[in-house]
Design brief:
alpha/beta, Alpha-Beta Plaits, Rossmann fold, nine-stranded mixed sheet, four-stranded antiparallel sheet, 13 strands, globular
Length: about 400
């Protein structure tokens, strides 16, 4: 592909990504994979170059652009070499017109910037939200320890998370012997750290209420030394189905998966009422703390969608509270930096559940945020999270 053809390919992909963000369609990574699956003539260098253009344009535009071309024209305004590829060649984009739409630079849509600022994030903290994400893994202590994996992977750097390592960008983790043996799992440092708030230990009865594909379930099983009872539940069949092969590879035998019907979760979990030592709720959220990995997510969120997410989180916390035994703990986790989903949500729960209390957390990273702890990319080098440990009275 010529440089101009790469630019045109990026424009076509951005058109699809902008439309998907507007209509809640597939993620950017999925659209990029589909695009190149039908274009076998594009070599690996072409695919890499186009992907880099696409993500550079996404990261630059805070508001959702009117089109993929507007996003690329905006990027070209900062790069004369890129601007020169708008040359009207057979497979390239038409020349840039003086009055055509241009996507402006920014961190996020204006309403979200206001919400983030209200949550105490300054300009530097917000800018870090759209940096490139690192590649972190969690050493599975059921099969290895961190020092042994460091010896096998000399380029790995230890993290604040006790089982965490950071690998060089571009590492093909799935080809590593340690991954094939189940000794490591890809998991962001922040995700590892907030899971520590569960204080899972051997012999406990634990629920991972919104388990998804099971990343935190696997970390909990390792903390429990694969002894006890661990229920991983979710309403998403496809995501939950990914847990079984991961658990087998990790040597985690105590995890039982349970598919839930939306709106009827309490019925399906009736046998767990007042039983759990810990219920961890990694609730559906805005994902503002994971924009480094999914920068187009900034264009998907609306105030109305945020309100729906907050309502879902509140409902899940109320559901989880009924599963915790007296003296047990409910751990509220969101990969969000918005107070509406984090500190405000914890305050709401405590106000509505007399006798419950927020237990202070001593985590290896993060800063106190009212009833819980918040991690941010700028301060902690991880994805952004809020976590609170809420304890039921005895």
């Amino acid at each position: 592909m010529t440089p101009a053809a790469r630019t045109q390919a990026a424009i076509e992909l951005l058109d699809a990504i902008v439309a998907a963000a507007r209509d809640q369609g597939p993620a950017a990574d999925t659209l990029i994979a589909r695009y190149f699956a039908g274009r076998r003539y594009a070599g690996s260098k072409d695919r890499r170059a186009v992907r880099e253009l696409v993500y550079a344009a996404i990261r630059r535009a805070g508001e959702r652009p009117v089109s993929g071309r507007a996003a690329m024209v905006g990027l070209a305004g900062d790069d004369p070499a890129l601007a020169a590829t708008f040359d009207g060649s057979p497979h390239g984009p038409a020349p840039i017109a003086p009055d055509e739409p241009v996507a402006g630079p920014g961190i996020a849509p204006a309403w979200l910037v206001d919400r983030l600022r209200a949550a105490g994030l300054d300009e530097g903290e917000m800018a870090a939200l759209i940096d490139r994400a690192p590649l972190d893994v969690r050493v599975n202590r059921l099969k290895a320890d961190r020092e042994a994996i460091r010896a096998a992977l000399p380029d790995a750097r230890p993290l604040a998370a006790p089982d965490g390592l950071r690998l060089p960008p571009g590492t093909n983790v799935e080809q590593l012997d340690a991954f094939r043996a189940g000794a490591i799992e890809v998991q962001d440092a922040g995700s590892q750290i907030v899971t520590l708030a569960a204080r899972a230990a051997p012999g406990m009865a634990v629920i991972d209420l919104c388990a998804g594909a099971g990343g935190k379930s696997l970390a909990l099983a390792a903390a429990m030394a694969d002894r006890g009872t661990l229920l991983a539940s979710d309403i998403d069949r496809a995501r939950l189905a990914r847990l079984a092969p991961r658990a087998e590879r990790a040597g985690a035998s105590i995890i039982a998966a349970r598919l839930l019907d939306p709106g009827r979760e309490a019925e399906a979990l009736a046998d767990w009422r007042d039983r759990a030592d810990v219920v961890l709720i990694d609730a559906p959220c805005s994902g503002t703390g994971t924009w480094r990995r999914n920068p187009e997510a900034r264009w998907r969120l609306t105030p109305e969608r945020l309100d729906r997410l907050v309502a879902t989180q509140a409902r899940l916390l109320d559901l989880g509270a009924g599963l915790v035994k007296p003296g047990g703990a409910l751990v509220h986790v969101v990969c969000s930096l918005l107070d509406a989903e984090g500190a405000d949500q914890a305050d709401r729960f405590l106000a509505g559940h007399p006798g419950w209390r927020a237990e202070p957390l001593r985590l290896p990273a993060g800063r106190a945020r009212r009833a819980g702890v918040r991690l941010t990319p700028a301060h902690d080098g991880s994805d952004g999270f809020f976590v609170a440990r809420l304890v039921r009275p005895c």
